[in-house]
Amino acid sequence: MTLIVAKFGGTSVANVERIKAVADIVIATRKRGHQIVVVLSAMAGETDRLIELAGQAATTPDSRELDVLLSTGEQVTIALLSMALQERDYPAVSYTGGQVQILTDNVHNKARIIDIESARVKKALTEHKIVVIAGFQGIDESGNITTLGRGGTDTTAVAMAVALNAHECRIYTDVDGVYTADPRIVPAARRMDRLAYEEMLELASLGAKVLQIRSVEFANKYKVPLRVLSSFEEGRGTLITDEDEEMERALIAGIAHNRDEAKLTLRGVPDRPGIAGAILGPIAEAGIEVDMIVQNTGVDHTTDFTFTVHRNDFAKATVLLGKTAQELGAAEVLSDDRIVKISVVGVGMRSHAGIASKMFSALAAEGINIQMISTSEIKISVVVDEKYLELGVRTLHSAFGLENGSAIMNDAVG
Ligand code: ADP
Ligand code: ASP
Ligand code: MG
Known about the structure:
Elements: E1 3-8, H1 16-31, E2 35-40, H2 46-57, H3 63-70, H4 72-87, E3 92-95, H5 97-100, E4 102-104, E5 113-116, H6 119-126, E6 130-134, E7 137-139, E8 145-147, H7 153-163, E9 168-173, E10 194-196, H8 197-205, H9 213-222, E11 226-230, E12 238-241, E13 254-258, E14 261-270, H10 275-285, E15 290-295, E16 302-310, H11 314-328, E17 332-336, E18 339-345, H12 355-365, E19 372-376, E20 379-385, H13 389-399
Parallel strand pairs: 1-2, 1-9, 2-6, 3-6, 9-11, 10-12
Antiparallel strand pairs: 4-5, 7-8, 11-12, 13-18, 14-16, 14-17, 15-16, 18-20, 19-20
Helix pairs in contact: 1-4, 7-9, 8-9, 10-11, 12-13
This protein binds adenosine-5'-diphosphate, aspartic acid and magnesium ion.
Adenosine-5'-diphosphate (ADP) binds near residues 11, 173 and 208.
């Protein structure tokens, strides 16, 4: 018998009716002869509601207590699904992260899974039970509840699939697969049948929130086939595996965008060795992650230094940079949180020149000014004013011929 791990996101368990629909899918999977372990999110909006409550109780809620609070959302849905399955005479049992023993480090609110003690789950499976596990949560060495960061249920699901050596990890959500761009922004976006881990890793890290980046890292590391599909309609979804012969030979897999970043510039800093370290040192020490970095060519012994951080860290980074500016005698600090990052991603870019210039001229034709650029082997990202988000993503989507009906576009670059 093959084992399937199936994860259902917030919209798929938004109310009891939806939870009953999930029970239908779970039972259908069982009837096809699979063992099944289900991993659930909290009801849609619940985690946001809990964060909001915490904000009312304290200006800076304690991170340990926040995890105690946030983990309650998933405890509600796992119990309700187990009840709904039992009502239909299917033996089901729910476990919290602590009960399974999903062991994490102790970094509250963004903990990493270290190990999963799967004995309890395996025993329940041998007793023919449907096991329902709370996503997004774990327990640290001292027994404190931890959570895995927003979207963390994806990672719980893949980690469970690894621990149980599952045949496939299915991520059920409100879209029927991974698209060439967020279908909410690009109505003409096209669902992909297959995708390479590497491309999904880039798409997820560049803002495609359909999968938490860490879940894709796990899946790639342990080679667990990942399938994204809809809990609202039947379909094959998108299968994410290692790159293989059957995959479309498209240059560009998709366009991703990220509106969670903010940009900081230090103008007129002395152009001498050690400057980049002096600027970014305090930022790193504060635990703030830096994404893009650009330093201009020095003129008159001074230069400008620009980088981006997560918007949540914007205020803190601005204060820190203000101090650094004084110490270094910089001319001024400029900060802007009204930016977005738009990226084109595709393994086909490796062997093709001309993608960057095509991207830049398509944006220019729409009058979209590029503020920053960064590239890797399989992606090009630009930072633009946030007012150009929709226009920018749609423009690139059509410039690279990603719409319906133009799937293979090897000659799209002249
Ligand atoms: P869940 O609550 O099930 O975890 P999420 O909201 O986290 O669902 O992820 C699904 C959403 O991801 C979709 O509704 C869609 O708007 C968004 N999304 C962003 N980029 C893409 C993409 N390339 N393909 C599919 N969905 C995407
Ligand atoms: N409920 C958590 C969140 O909203 C985890 C998840 O749904 O993946 O981020
Ligand atoms: Mg999600």
